[in-house]
Amino acid sequence: MLRWAVIFFIVAIIAAIFGFGGIAAGAVSIAKILFFVFVVLFLISLISGLARR
């Protein structure tokens, strides 16, 4: 999931360079959502891993 967030971020940077503001804004928002979902899932797995020990 973090990989997809990085891919969308790179797409946003390339779109911004070429002047596609709407596409860049959309790609950035998707990258943000995927990053936060990744962080939440990582924290859940970290806590559940610590609770099992």
From TrEMBL:
| Entry keyword annotation includes Transmembrane | yes
- Transmembrane segments in this chain: where? 7-27, 33-51
Q: Which UniProt keywords apply?
A: Cell membrane, Membrane, Transmembrane, Transmembrane helix
What is the protein's name according to its record?
Answer: DUF1328 domain-containing protein
Q: Which organism is it from?
A: Chitinophaga horti
